[in-house]
Records
---
Amino acid sequence: MEHLQLSLQEAFFLAWVVGCLDLRSASGGPITLQAFWAQCFEVSSPFLPKRIDNPFLVHYVAYHHFRSLGWVVKSGIKFCVDFLLYKRGPVFHHAEFAVMIVPVYEDEADCASSPNPLPNSGPISWQWFTTVNRANAQVMKTLVLAHVIIPPSRDIEPSLYDSPEILSKFKVKEVLIRRFVASRMRD
């Protein structure tokens, strides 16, 4: 028997959007999508799960964005990024793009009040940025900065946190980064 390990984002996408994943508890009972959505929030931020900058929510917004555009999205931890984008999947091709999620708060008060700051939500040093870009350029991947625009929490009704309808409040903007090497790019 082959075991399949899915991230929270992959599991929720397959259960909600594709409808091909049957969710079961450890005891074998069914788990509703609503209950799984709540569990994803709690697992990624156990003390304050219902926040607009919940790590699961921010990552799922980016994951859903790229999957909706037809990409196969996999973990990019091996290359110091959040996701890798494949045209057909890792079995068929190498990933063309390495995606780094950059959370952008529309309301600075939400950022200041966050109990657990999101990675890359603050200033990024040039040394760190060029290191990640160089590491991905060496393995023939183009770096994509996925700016996930986090809406102000004051504009979100509390009931929206209980369903995926909250996704419509977010926006994703992509910035493609390519490393320029003068000796290789003359022609």
Note: The two ends are 51 Å apart (CA to CA).
---
Amino acid sequence: MVRLSFGELERLSKVETILEVTSLILLVIYPVKLGDGQDANKLSLYHCLVADNDTMTWALITMVADRDLSKFRVLKINRCFVSKTFHEKSPAINIIALDAEILGAMSEVIREPVWTLEALNKVIPEPVNTLRKVVIEPVENTGLPFKTVEKISSECIGTTKVDEFFLLKCTVIGIHFDSIVYPACQDGKCSYRVTEDPVLGKWFCNKCKRLWPTPLYFFKFSIDVSDDTGSIRLKCLHKAGKLLIGMAAIDAYKLQRNDQTGLDWRISAVKNKKFLLKCKAKLKKVGDEKCKLISVVLASSRDK
């Protein structure tokens, strides 16, 4: 039998789940592993069909990583959190298994489960999308030249004092960050990182020398992209991050605090997707050195 640590239970209890369920027995069909968590007590996320005697539905199942759901399995869940959600715009049941066993066959089930999928569908409310709508701005028809990764290097783009803009058709192959969002100064012309003063209960901007009651939240991460000619790393800040991740930075921050698994899903969904990017290349001074910085200004998906 698998039980999560008290630390994991405390983290998962902060997720906005709808129903705590005991005794659920499911046949797991066509499981696809979406990824692993980064906690010491590793969790894995699977997208799969689940079925009982009467009903079949799509599900997202989170459970400890040392249990293999890579093929048809009978999953006996003694305790879990259940809610309704969406995966790639399709409805699914979200199951966070806190106490579960993988059985070889239905014949190993000693007693009938208390809950059925039909009963869960009746009592769990439909998911409410509270995320802010992200308006996708068109990148096409800007009149900018198209570049390949090879041309970005061979043409020495971004090595002059003048900012250079260009378009790049590419596939995202990796995302890198320490924290995907950061608390920022409320002055629109600043956006410098702020730190919380625990005594005053306010946020201090070391650049503006001002205190703020609350910070703004901005994206900050890098992406590795590739085309037929090579790969390159690009910087993504607030606006580009919002377009790539598909949500506002404040919503990403809330997920980071309350539902890290949910945020991991949104981030992993960006990988292997094709985008048309509007990029800016410029020289940036780092200490006594000058280096080329290429950042994403706008992004639109080419997968549709």
Note: Confidence is low (pLDDT under 50) at residues 1-17, 128-136.
